Amino acid sequence: MRAKMASLASNSCEMTESIARTVNTAQCSFAYRESGRGRAVLLIHGSGTSGRVWNDVATRLASKGRRVLVPDRPGCGDSGVPREGNGRATLGRAFVLFAKALGEERVAVVGHGIGAFIAIEIAAASPYVVDRLVLISPVVGGMDGPQRRITADEALAESHLYATDGDLASHARQVATGSIGSDAARTVYARVVDQRDTRRTDTDILTEAGRVDDGLLLRSLACPVLVVRGDHDHNVSADRANAIARACPNAMLATIENAGHFAHIEQPESVSTVVADFIGR
Question: What is the mean pLDDT of residues 152-177?
Answer without folding.
Answer: 44
